[in-house]
Amino acid sequence: MTTTQFLPRPEGRVAYDVAGPGDGPLVVCLPAMGELRSSFRHLVPLLTARGFRVACLDLRGHGDSDPTFTRYDDVALASDALALVHELGGPALLVGNSMGAGAAVIAAADEPSAVSGLALVGPFVRNPPGSALVGLVFRLALVKPWGPAAYLAYYPKWTPGRRPEGYDEHTAAVRENLRRPGHWKAFVRTTRTSHAPAEARLDEVRSPAVVVMGSDDVDWKDPAAEAQWIGSRLGAEVVMAAGVGHYPQAQAPELVADAVARLAAHA
What we know:
Structural class: alpha/beta
């Protein structure tokens, strides 16, 4: 059983836990917007069984992290990821889901010596075409009092097809997270992040990378095309997860674990 730990940061603390052998290669997992570090619950045991030491971080204002920050964007998350790598003794492989992938790219560009590889899972490393209008509509939909209900009504679309074990319990935890003091406001501010800073840093990344994209990820009109675009920019291996949505680490954890192991072998 893992224990919640806290990393002091300017303006608050971010929560994380660590599993696996203390001398194993370090993997740091960065969740998606609105998600919890427990979104990696199916991936962690597969990685620790391979000898990795795995740390999972809660985003600012999510889970057990404080909602006291002024920034909740990709750049801020990248700084938290690097601070955790230094705290635990890097370098580390970064496994970033959704906006966590954008943060991982920025971290690798900022401190190449701290990041030995990138596993970008259901990644957002640029803003989708036409996302300005979509983003505006999304933010309007999140205005209280109907905002939490609107978000939770959409939430199942990110996990199409076969749901992973513990899905209902995890969804309940996501719902409860939004009710914690200050967390809804922090979540709404997180939704306003732009992934343009990540796209601007892609050509600076020198770490080996792998892209894992669900074929049924509703966030992209053509998930395979987006995965190939990212792969071509980073010289990365591209893995498509058939019938999987935005959270491959939950729906196809073995596939993601295999990809991380291959990445580690080339790091």
